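Proteins fold reproducibly. Next comes an illustrative record:
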Amino acid sequence: MNLELFRKIVRIGGSLLGLCIFLFLVYDGLNKLVKTSTPLEFSWAFVLLAFALFFLSYLFHMVNYRIIYKSSHQEVSIATTIVGYSFSFLPKYIPGYIWGYYSRSNWFEEKAKIPNRYSWHASAIELLVTVLTCSSIWMGYIFTRNKEFIWIYLILITPFLAIIPINRCITFFKSYSRTEKWFRNIDTVPYRYWLIITLISYFQRVLFGIGLWALSYTFSPTDFINPQKFLDFTYSFARSWLSGFLAILIPNGLGVREIVLNELLVEVNNISNNVSVIISTLSRLLMLFAEFGWVILAIFMNSKLKKQEYTESIIE
């Protein structure tokens, strides 16, 4: 069996397995909502707003991924990026995270002719900046309680500066004879690109936080809109995401994130336990639907790209 066929089988098999896990998670989430003891009276406008914000946030994931490619001198269209990135959503539900990244790198190498190492590099940078921004939001929020603004500013700007020592380490190890072979294929990230990537990553956390706020507002639409709540929900999301990420054997961190988010909604956002369970479960479902929505959109976009390639081949 040649390598290309093996990669294709792994990618398709991973997508099918991921789809099965995805469907189970949707069933499990809906089952929890149905069995909840709290009457479900939603303001559907805010549920749709939360879905739209989650859906939009995933778009910025893809925009960031394309920017990382560009920082490595790899040109790829936003349409191709959306298709390749979205197709990796399903395999990532397989425990261990690695299958989503593996499927993504194979797709871009086969379809976009981008060498495998650039996709792994892009995924590593994307993961690093997400961990840094979520961690800074977590730590920065702790200092807001004591109004220690100097520490808050220092913590929030740390992700913007983190690439400086990282780039220097990469440059050093590439020039050092004993480590050169391990670092020769690792590129430094120009600071102007890192700045944009980090800003977008922060913006994504805010979008997810406002999405959580919208879900909470479905149960109390007459409450006064307090800007402080946006910060509270952004912190709750960032911390729950980071907690789920650390549970590497759980499919996409699901389950762990909901438990942590449920506790934070009660502790930080002063939401009753019953309602917090519904919000955390509903947020998981909406994120699942948002990701699946991108998969469906990617299928249509991929079909259009194939037709475009076929037309261009005839013209040539």
